[in-house]
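lol ok so funny story. i was supposed to be doing the assay writeup but got distracted and ended up predicting the structure for this chain instead. priorities right. anyway since i did it might as well share w the group, maybe its usefull for someone
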Amino acid sequence: MNTKNTTPFTYLLLVCIHILSTSCTNSTTDQDNILLQEWTGPYGGVPAFDKMEVADIQSAVEYGMEENLKEIEAIANNEAAPTFENTIEAMERSGAYLDRVFSYYGIFSSNMSSPEFREVQAVLAPKLSEFSSKINQNEALFKRIKTVYDNAQENPLDSDQQRVVELVYKGFAMRGAAIDAKKKERYAAIDKELSVLYNKFSDNVLHDEENYVTYLNKDQLGGLSDGFIKSAAAIAKEKGQEGKYAITNTRSSMDPFLTYSTERDLRKQVWTNYYSRGDNNDEYDNKEIIAEILKLRRERVELLGHKNYAEWRLQDRMAKTPENALNLMEAVWPAAISRVAEEVADMQTIADANGDNITIEPWDYRYYAEKVRVAKYDLNSDEVKQYLQLDKLREAMFYVAGRLFNYKFEPVPEGSVPVFQEDVKVWEVTDLDSGAHIGLWYLDPFARAGKRSGAWATTYRSHTIFDGKKTVLASNNSNFIKAAPGEAVLVSWDDATTFFHEFGHALHFFSSNVKYPTLNGGVRDYTEFQSQLLERWLSTDEVISQYLVHHETGEVIPKALVAKIKKAATFNQGFGTTEYLASALMDMKLHLADPEGMDVGDFEKETLAALDMPKELPMRHRTPHFGHVFSGEGYATAYYGYMWADVLTADAAEAFTDSEGGFYDEDMASKLVKYLFAPRNAIDPAKAYRLFRGRDAQIEALMRDRGFIN
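and the output, tada:
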């Protein structure tokens, strides 16, 4: 998941609010605050992560807001006639203090959260919403933007300038800049209310992740690998339960436990804890919060003349309309649930043959799917795991980056770049031929208390050549379970795929070749495409033969095992596609429905029933903990974007497989970087893809890719 596409705090500020649940307060400070200071040191300056303190956040954001508003007022009240230079470029140049502050804020929010920070966050959220409204609803500023936009329609600017003007104008218009004063007042009030609700939603989910831990005794470890057991013991010890084994309420802990544990009652308990996050009918329950969010979102877009939130949101996406997004999902859905029925039948056959005397339930799916994998493909996931070392996978990603992008990754001298946690490591990225510095790559790989679940990529500084070239500071963040001392970190094939996926976002950041900060943004149903495509290089022969080696013997993964992996490539696609699509469809249908009087729990049940959702599996993200959609607005009515991007991915992958050099074909790699990575949002995504492929993507490629058609 890509969580940060841009840095300017003009019209794009609200995006950062919704993605990061950002915030501020009313206090005074000065530039002595470390979070506000310009970055110093090597590599064009780096954040002082080793000096940041939660206590500095509130005053730093306040000062940054004050300075940014002064800049905006100066632009809006400039007596000179509006031009691209004195209006749009001036906006692109504004907000430097806040840019720096939010690099630290993002760490506190996602990587190093604490009760102290959450208290600050709760106070700050409505304040920053008010600040954002002051910019988005500044009539004098929008009048100048509209003048520049109108002039550019008659006398087009350079392509980069034209694109920036269109994006800025559209962003302001979508945020209510053109409505009357009374509506603007209500719009701002709604944004303020939503910011509080988003923050509360996230806190509730984090509470349930941190407080629902399943502790095992020695006689409850059946089926679990030695590495997992050692890790679970270490976590239990950290939590003051030495001698026990902790299964935390996160996907990275839940998934392997449900796959391998022979203890069915415990599987049910762990499954229930995980899928009930935000849905325990207590003070941390999110259902009423979601209902209020949906009502406020509908009311806000009605102020702009839209029928519903989905219609408003998708107008600047590749899909353009909710109907187009639904058409794609509904075209795939029947094949997905049909495949689930086949998968469940296979699992039930094995359960019956074993005399287990059960009917497959959701907490059984992963466990028996693994047995089917072994029986059908003679493929044991734990056997595969022995060849998937985290460090080797990282080297494999560097190899791919070298072959496709001509990048070289070298660790920076120890202590030369500050980090916020001892497990975070940093590499310098340079051009293989010229040695030119491109940026720094930070890796925060391990799960810990206060770190949000999942995997994501972000930037602390994005590339631009506006006002001098800026190099990239990018990071990848994961939640791998840290191995016991002296043990290798072994991951599943799915986790290895996700590792490559998030690295794809980082490569998208590093390869940026745009002039203006705004152009580093992205279209949500397109920006996942590049990272999804990079997943394909994990299974290339070059990566397999060099980096998939046994963690103890160093032997390359056997060809026979590789053949089994590739043969099983479409295995369990019913589960994977259905659990994802159910969440994506739910996201869209929630925002198309009338929210007045909605009971969120009932709506989820009724919608799934209408879809004929298989009872043997849940949505990937149940509504009460669907953070993509309700902890902010980054993926609201946009979760379908992964499927949209999947169509592009499957189609682009076929372009590589059909080429003479396969996935390392030099001509294809050159087009990949030139048209799909480097432009970021400087080119309309549909046009960029046609430049790469020579035509639009075709859904048939996706259906072939998932084994739904031959």
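The chain is about 55% helix and 5% strand. The first helix runs from residue 13 to 20.
back to the writeup now i swear
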